[in-house]
Amino acid sequence: MSARVDVTLADAPFDPGAELSAFCMNAAGDGAVVSFVGLTRGQTGDGAEVATLTLESYRGVTLASMRAIADDAAARFAVGAIRVIHRAGTMQPGEPIVFVAASSPHRRVAFEAADYLMDRLKTEAIFWKREDGVDGARWIEPTDDDARDRARWE
Amino acid sequence: MALYTIELCGRLADRAGAALTLELDAASCSVADLRAALAAAHPSLAADMANARVRACVDEVIVKDTFMVAAGQAIAFFPPVSGG
Residues A99, A16: contact at Cβ < 8 Å? Predict the structure, then answer.
């Protein structure tokens, strides 16, 4: 059985609640749905205020990288459906950046698939993240923690 | 002479602009050659061109340093990525 995989690169704000409702409507047959929403932070790691966050992407490569990660999750876990939405462009603090959802007959599988999707999106999806604040711009790169989280799935 | 157009993504664009052109004698060269030529022409990129975590992308496929690239292909350099 192959899972349904739906991946979107969004250049405008999206409603994670509406996405989760739509995902649940289509998850018929699976008893468990797990979702994760990432929101734009209002502060940097050292407490400075963030005015906007910009996610740069590159042509078809960004969507292809998201699709490869989602397909790997579908192959690795016994899931019925996977949904991935990732923003590009400029965002205000509090706006959703990323939404993942996985459905499965068993909740633990759905939790693991969502966790796996996020660990790989953080470190491998083709995006470059820049925080613009009152004291200038700063590019964000994956942290050692992000790399360790990703390595759990090796 | 052959003209190579190169896009610089993320923080690399802060150093030398989002796109630049390089004129080289050969109509094709390896990605490693291109890194060296870019570093020579733009010293602000030298450290990144020597960094293996900065990857090359040709016609929307991430490639190794041994990959042969031709003038006219869509060439880009990617610094470490960060999604989510």
Answer: yes
Rg (CA), chain A: 16
Q: Which of B81, B69, B80 is nearest to B38 (CA)?
A: B69
Residue of B nearest to A124 (CA): B81
Q: CB distance B81–A124 less than 8 Å?
A: yes
Say how far residue A67 (Cα) sits from the centre of its chain.
Answer: 11
Residue A28 pLDDT class (50, 70, 90 cuts): confident
Q: Please, which pLDDT band fits residue A42 given cuts at 50, 70 and 90?
A: confident
Tell me, what's the pLDDT at A44? 76
8-47 in chain B: CB under 8 A from chain A: 9-11, 14
**Cα distances (angstroms) measured from residue A137 to each of A85, A123, A134:** 25, 21, 8
The rounded distance, in Å, linking the Cα atoms of A147 and A141 is: 11
- What ipTM is given for this predicted complex? 0.94
Q: Check the CA dihedral B66-B67-B71-B74 and report its sign.
A: negative
- State chain A's mean pLDDT as an integer: 94
**What pTM, to 2 d.p., does this model score?**
0.94
Report d(CA B64, CA B75) in Å as an integer. 13
Beta bridge partners of A9: A86
